[in-house]
Structure formats: C-alpha cells, structure tokens
Amino acid sequence: MRNEQPMTTGKRSKKEDLVQQLDERLLELTALFEISRSLTSSLSIRSILENILRIPMGHMLISRGVVFLKKEESGEFTIEEVRGLSRDLLGKSLRFDSPPSRFVLMKEIEEESDWIDFFKKFQIELLLPLISSQGTIGFVGFGQKIGDKPYEEREIEFLNSLSNIAATAVANGINVDEIKKVNRHLDRKIQQLNTIFDISQELNTTLDTEKIGSILSFAVMGELLVNKCLVLMNNDNHMEIVSAKGFDHIDGMEFKSCRINEPVILEESNQFELYKTIGIAVLVPMSLQDETKGVLAIGPKISGTGFSEADFEFLKTLGNQAMTALENARLFQEALEKQRMEEELHIARTIQQGLLPSKLPQIAHYDVAALNISSRQVGGDYFDVIPISENVYGIVIADVSGKGAGAALLMSNLQASLHALISGEIQINEIVGRINHLIHRNTALDKFITFFYGQLDVSHNRFTYCNAGHNPPYRINRSGQIEELSIGGLILGMMVDVNYETASVDLKPGDRMVLYTDGITEAMNKQGEEFGEERLQKLLLDGFDLTSQELIDRIVSEVNHFAKGVPQADDMTMVIVKAVD
Predict the structure, then answer these.
(1) Are residues 169 and 209 in the same domain?
(2) Which residue among 69, 150, 281, 522 is the one 20 to 30 A from 433 at the CA level?
(3) Which pLDDT belongs to residue 1?
(4) Which residues contact residue 450 at a Cβ distance below 8 angstroms, ignoring those fewer than 6 apart?
(5) Structure pTM?
(6) What pLDDT, in 10s, does the model give residues 535-554?
(7) Domain check: are 300 and 373 in the same one?
(8) What CATH code is carried by the domain that includes residue 368?
C-alpha cells in the first residue's frame, strides 16, 4: 500500500497565521510586563524617562525618541529625555496650541504650527500623550523604525498601552521628585534656622558693634558661600560702615543713605552704581520695628548661581536679628556716654559749689545777699564777696563760656588768680588786665569769661569797679533811677594786652547794686520768649523796700512763674548789695 504524503501548497495555513499572531501578542505583552515592572521598580524620574524610551526602542528597533513633560508654572512642555537625538535639545520648551489627547501620526497632519514643525524637523513620526489623573502631563515621541518600515496598527496599540502605563509612573516620579525638593527645602530651612538660632545667641553675648558686624559677615559668607559682605547702618544722610569683609579698597568711600524695604538684585536695577563698582550683587534691608535701619550688601555666590527666595528670607531674618543687637549696642553706648557725662557733671558741680562762698561776710551798714541756682548742665557762673581789709571788700560775678567740667575748671583758675592778685596793692584795672592775660595764654580761642569786679570801700561808701564784657550790673538810687555799671573793657581771654578802665559810684543809704548773670534775663518760657531786662528792672523798682534776700526770692519766684517749668540751659546767679542806715 502506498503511503500518502500531505500536499503542500507553499502558503501558510490560517492556523499558522494565528499561531504567529499569538506569538507576537505574547511578545508584546511580555514587553509591556517588562516595561511596567521597570517603570514601577524605580521612583526616580530620570530612570523612568530613560526606560520609557530604551525598552520600546530596543524592542521595535526605533531610531530615535523624545519625552516632554509639562511645566505647571508656564504651561509649556520641556524636553526632559532624548535617545538618538542630540542632548543639546534637553531643556528646550514647546507650547502646544491644543495638545492632542490621543496618538498622532505626524504624516497625517497637514496643518502648521511650531510644535508640528519641530517634530517634522527632527523626524518624529509618532506622538503619544502621557495622561494621568492630573490631565496631560507630557508626550512621548518616536522616530522612524530602522528600515523605514511604517508603524503597524498593533505597534501603535502597543506603544499607546506603553504610554498609559508610563503616565502613572511619570506622575508618581514627578510627585516623588517634588517631595524630595520639598524635603531638601525643609532641610535647608532647618539648617538656616539652626544657623540663625546659633548666631542670635552669639550676637546676644556682646554689645560690641564691630564684633556684631564681624559675626554677621562671617555667618553670611559661610552660609551662602559668598566672598564679600558689607554691613551698613543708616546715619542721617549717609551709611556708616559697621563691617566690611572681602574688600581691598573701601576705606574713605561714602555711601548715601539707603532706605530699601525689599531685597534688590543689582543687575536688575539701574540704581546703586557705587555698590556695583565694588562687586556687590544684592542689597538686603536690615529692619527694626518695620523701619529700615541698615543694609546687608552681599557679593555674588562663588558657585555663580543666583540668590533664591529662601536665601533672601534667611538674609532678612538674620539681618533683622543683627539689627536688634546693633541697636542694643548703640543704646548701651549711649547709656555709657550719658553715665560718663553725668559723672563729669557731678564732678563739675562739686568743683563749682566748692568755689562759691558757703557764707557771705557781714558788712557794717550793708545788706548783702547772693544766689546761685545750677541748671541741668553745669555752667561756669561764679560770684564771691571777699574781705580784703577791715573796710574794703571785693565783689565779683562772672560767667565762663561752655558747660561741664571744662567750664568749672576754668572758673577755678579765675578764682585762684583773683584771690592771688587782690591780696596786694594792685589797682583794679591792672588786676583785670593780668587775669585777661592769664586766661588768653592758657585757654583756647573759644573759651572766654564775662567778668565784673569791684571793691566796696565802706569807710567812704564808694564802689570802684571794672566790667570786662559782663551784663552791666544796676545801681538803683532812692529816687528810682537805674544806672548801668558798664565801664571796663573787653571780655577776658579774647585778646592779649587789653587796657581796662575803672569807674566809681557813691552809695547812699537806700541805694542798691544788683549783679546778675544772663541766666536770669535769658530764662525762657514755652513760647521761646526771654524774661528780659525790662521785667528784671521793673521787679527791682517795685521791690525797693525789700531786703536783699527778699528781693532775690521775689526775682526767682517771678522767673520760675514766667518759665512755667521749662528746664533752663544756664545757671542763675545774683549778688545784691544794699546800703542801709
């Protein structure tokens, strides 16, 4: 019996075609499984994007590929990964007029736009959207297959399935990347807060302005890696340099007052040219109670990168902390200076009070009284009634220019010189001339003394005097006439070798001499009005029958009533001599 062999026609049977299709489907499913496993095995966006291109391009022998991701802030799509194309394309952005929501074969598109031109230029034939729950988050583009074979329907279906799987992985990768950025930002913030806390503690341990500026400068330079830092404080119309680190030639430079409220990037500003010339990149305000008190001037970062909002926030916070420390240091220095001045004033008051007579001599047939009231500041008022002989008494009143210990010491020199000279047989004008010579020789040009000196001869009831530029004392007789005792010469200490004159007046019972300093007549009220000589003369005439002490008390009372509590800037000194029966 003959064995029959099956007949072959040279064509594949339907069964064989079906087997081949199943094999291809199995291969595609296997590839999708591999891709899915690869994409979900990593949370790195970089790794995910590489696998989106690498696996299908290797599986289907595709020549090139590109992945775009959407930038939420701009709405544009930026190239994040390429394969088979120049990596110079990374970072390039495209804006889609109307992003496609399904796969697109570029050969089927006839319209024109920038993004279509881009894909055609780089021979991208197939574009597939990456769609997640957040919408279209990107696109995957593939070029032609090797051998110029067109994409079959099943291949497009395969790549479409790939894009759906990849979209979820990309969305997760983006979220993880954002979380990492947030974590890095938080780590950075924690580091900066720790830095601020540590530096604040260090700042609070010193009241040295220069040290505070150095601490701030080194903290800024170390934290932000910059090589220049300038700390400035507003002082009237200019900026005072507190600290300057990283500058070669900055001494002598004058920086105008700067009242910025927000950080300024100098390359974006057409102002602050002086800061630009010394290599400053940004200015950051240093505030206290919402008022800009100073400025941090910072050089560029060594890395060449720009300053972020976090950097500016750090600088503002640190600068404000330092500003508080600088203000505390300033207030402390002011307190020290005030304490030093108070100590000086106390010394001056002690000197001054020690020079004034604690008790006036009793002069037969004369009623003598005197007063000295110190102002808030120690002046150089001086008075004295000095017994020279049994019948002769020296009477002096003077006002030394200036305040404080210097004026008190000059007054002590005056007193010592006067007591030394009146002990001998020296004429009054010669005494004044010698004192003038001494003061001129031993003091600066801005120091001088208004001086009035006379001698009362009680045996002849005559008063001989010399007035060296002092407020003219008054002689008031029984009939109410007022005479000014003005004969003499120039203020003491103004010129050398001055000739002084003397004059004499006779005193009858009831006649009165009133010596005073300008603290009486120049006492001021709230309206800035002076008490004046006219008011003083009226009080002298109205108080003719009063004793010397009673008249002084009335004058002081009227001056205080006129001033109504306004602090006075000068001492008030008076000497009143009244001839009695």
Answers:
(1) no
(2) 522
(3) 39
(4) 398, 399, 468, 469, 470, 471, 491, 492
(5) 0.52
(6) 999 999 999 889 999 999 99
(7) no
(8) 3.60.40.10
